[in-house]
Amino acid sequence: MNNRVVITGLGIWSCLGNNLDEVTESLRAGKSGIGMDMERKAWGYRSGLTGIIPKPELKGILDRRARVGLSEEAEYAYMATLDAMKNAKMDMSWVEKNEVGILYGNDSSAKAVSEAIDTIRLKKDTTLLGSGSIFQSMNCTVTMNLSTIFKLKGINFTISAACASGSHSIGLGYLMIKWGLQKHIICGGAQEVNPMAFGSFDGLSAFSIRENEPTKASRPFDRDRDGLIPSGGAASLILESYESAMERGAPILAEVVGYGFSSNGEHISNSNVDGQVRSLKMALNDAKLAAGDIDYINAHATSTPGGDLAEASAIDAVFGESRPMVSSTKSMTGHECWMAGASEIVYSMLMMQNNFVAPNINFENPDEASAKLNIVRTTIEKNIDVFLSNSFGFGGTNSSLIIKKFKQ
Amino acid sequence: MTKAEIIERINGFLVDEFEVDADKINPDENLRDTLGLDSLDYVDLVVIIESNFGFKVVAEDFINISTFQNFYDYVERKVTEKASA
Questions:
Q1: Domain chopping of chain A, boundaries
Q2: pTM, whole model, 2 decimals?
Q3: Catalytic one among A163, A168, A187, A337?
Q4: Which candidate, A80, A167, A234, A353, has a CA 20 to 30 Å from the CA of A158?
């Protein structure tokens, strides 16, 4: 079976905005969502830079039983999914009568775990953790809670694949629908944003310390980049078969046409050009497209010296002749980690729908590798028919997705 | 703490945390049915009692609590025991 797989709904909760319109405006304006969290400095962090994400107010929207199990990242995911389902015209009465699945990327719930352990140490009594702690603490906190809240009856599990989690969730959702195993799946990625979540990452000196200029700190591909900025939130997409979308009268926003993946089989944290090239080529083969068919690449580039260098080399190896436009929206958002693979599809979808390419802000001087790419410095008004989005994670997990403007 | 203060505090967290309408709280009404408590909610009730009154409810104690009045009386007894310990 080879079903066409379409996207019918998008939702986002990020440092660029809490709905699609706000985020579109931020992308077009090249607005940074980065600021400082002084609490991290008090905790001994090397860098206090972070994406600034508002906390959703769920009282009055969700009842107590639903709320107490939601971790920070699951709250973001709930808000993004609520919006995505609304935009996809998927109401609760329809969902209850159909088999809707959820595949969501998430790879930590450090705040919930830390707070639970602090309580046990203090109180010496596990009952005093309350009923919600376990449902907040597990990596599957998003899928566990959202499948219950939205009464989902299809596939239901979490993808933990480091910073490629969100991308693989869309890739796996695409395959399940393409192969006829599911008709409708909520895909996405969520990332908690708090001092408990990022201490170990900060400890690797992976974060930018350009603290005097927060909005200039994330500078993927720029010669003077000095590290990434952790960020987060959640992004959700409704994937479904073309037939299902037509039957429901759902708005078809785009088509997922290619998914490539690979594992580097090498170092746990260093990037690898060969692994990334294999992922890119697999995605192109799956989409039955040539490199020259890609109009825009939303790069994984996080603003680390080594990572961006490897990706620039991989993109040049595959797209060196056609030189599509390239930008990393992480220049504005920071690195949304487990969420990034999904949010960057949402960001690119918004560009495709509104005919522009968002800039790679803070790209002032290229290095030897990035000089070979066609990196977008300022917003460009342009029709995008096909885009590709890269996501790479620790452990050498790589994912590339290709999305095409929908045509009958 | 007087009995009236205990009742006021209990009713306050039931309205605030358990989101029950204040006018549905009557001493003779059934606690579980009025609040719609399931087994998970009882765990949260233990937490909230501990944080408000400083003692831990053991699960067996809930067996003898059916009405709000039973609940008020139970908490008052435990608070008094704690004060005189």
A1: 5-248, 258-404
A2: 0.97
A3: A163
A4: A353
